[in-house]
């Protein structure tokens, strides 16, 4: 009896390349990517930026229904201390909710944004931001009766942070290895001169950016992370001999397969760092302007907004798209601490202010990037583990399901809400418990709409979003088609 070894040589090398990041990844063009590349014109460039709100954003406290019945229900369920809501400034307090009027009216409804989302309201009113209502992980459409009866296929491990983050980013629970951002890079990155810079994370390692061929390239605030102490004239342990020894160690291999592959990975990483550092526009004067100070709405203290800095890094890379030969790029940034089981009012208010500050800065930066307005070529969208419960646990909210999301960019059909905004309160037709929403729009539909704008053909959608065939609409209409 023969036993098949668990790892072939090819799988072993593939694993090593995955550990090394995209700097080590060769890019094999498939037929679909080649067709897309041929169709791209010389000045054709598009970027998608996934802004992941890690921890599960409370969208009931982000976009609010303010018609009389909805607002009454909000106050009834979310006020836990007299007139002082745990979530929003109550009646008579400074800075109430910010009304927004969608271009498409929803009968009998009115809406507003969290008081800290002033810059977001400006983007919405200016037509460069839209709201997509009640988006969540689904395998197929489901009713509340089907959910309760277990008669419809549902995503596994609902309400679990790790599993739902993975399902949002890949369509599968924890353990998945390919995300839909990476698959977009696989299929549409064929026109890029250097595949290394197709999928780029300005935050942590992200499943979203992992493709079958494309592997994500992670950058820091200053750009690609260099291997230290290998530059000419440098010192290691106080001597130039240390530098020489280090270069020999990482640049010399014998006959061992692992040594050879490690040296190849390191050399490609060094080369990629050099290419990206040369192409990126510098930060600050003469380059991409630094973000203005962020002011915490709770304390009034000014400081640096890390999300805005991530988006500055993205803008610096987009500015280098010419030298990099990039036509299609997918980026990932993140803002964390959204698991607000307690201290909701203070914590969520600060997070909303950071979100709005960063998006407004990114919009203004792209409006004049190297003297050109590239906002129509860059689309930013929010994602999160899940929404939260409408009911309060006393000082916060618990894990939910469906949630409302923002899409921002010059190609967005803004100043509108897409999808039917759910009823407020408990016990309605979408309440799966404590006001957690049964989604009416799937992540597949949300992603497919973005993918079609990005250049993906309808025939390719199922390869990226395997459940898209279960839903009637593949395009939700919030992006322009040209």
Question: TL;DR of this structure?
Answer:
By secondary structure, the protein is of the alpha/beta class. The chain contains 14 helices and 15 strands.
Detailed description of the structure:
This protein is α/β, with parallel strands linked by helices and 482 residues long. It has helices at 9-20, 31-39, 68-78, 118-125, 144-149, 161-170, 180-188, 240-251, 257-279, 306-319, 321-324, 344-366, 443-454, 461-464, and strands at residues 46-53, 63-65, 98-100, 111-113, 129-136, 199-201, 217-220, 223-224, 294-295, 302-303, 328-335, 378-384, 403-408, 417-418, 441-442. The longest helix is centred in the middle third of the chain and has 23 residues, at 257-279. The N and C termini lie far apart (60 Å). Residues 1-42, 82-86 and 89-94 have low confidence and may be disordered.
Task: Give the number of helices.
Answer: 14
Distance between the termini: 60 Å
Helical/strand content category: alpha/beta
CA-based gyration radius: 24 Å
SSE pattern = HHEEHEEHEHHHEEEHHEEHHEHEEEEHH
Please state the average pLDDT score. Answer: 87
